[in-house]
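quick one before i forget lol
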Amino acid sequence: MLSYLCLNWVLLVLFTGPTVSELVVIGEVGQDVTVPCHYSVRDRNGITSMCWGRDRCPNSKCSRPIIWTDGWRVTEQHSSRYQLKGDLHSGDVSLTIVGAREADSGIYCCRVEVPGWFNDQVINHKVVITKARISTASPHTYTSEQTSAPGSTSEPSFTVTRTWPSVSASEAPQTASDPCSGTSDCLDVTANLQNTSVSLPSQQHPERGLYIGIGSCAALLLILILALFLT
């Protein structure tokens, strides 16, 4: 009976393995992403080896290992983009992914090898690398008011509101210059327009004035001839 219970316990440990926890870490493309992992170190004898792998933690070691330590220093490193920047001697074995990429998304295993059967500290991390968010400039609203001149019979004043996105000073459109810089200039322009409009009718019918002149001359000549006959 005792041997049967011992066999069941051994089989249960073999198939279940160590307790595994899982955490989620989210980062952005181009940024350094730190995947946390720590273990307790009471004294120098508590410092132990560990590994990081690019897959779920198996029953032993790491699948697709990317970095190994002997507890004191890094002994194997798959790429310089994978670094341990924490204090290894105090149990900080957090993994830093330098310049994260979308391809770095996936499951990462942190296994701290504790002496004894099935004593390893195992943590699975789900790393999600997303594209950087692009901030959009808030639009600005410009309001222009148009009013009629005093004494005119035009329609009442109204307000027009337009919305444009903000632009830099180099992209801002150039403002057209005012057609008349002062009140006197505007009056001169108005007077010139009025003179032009008055003189247009006389220029449109030059033949009519010629006929009137000829008729007047003929009438005067006829009156002179009659006066000579009468005298």
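fyi The radius of gyration is 48 Å.
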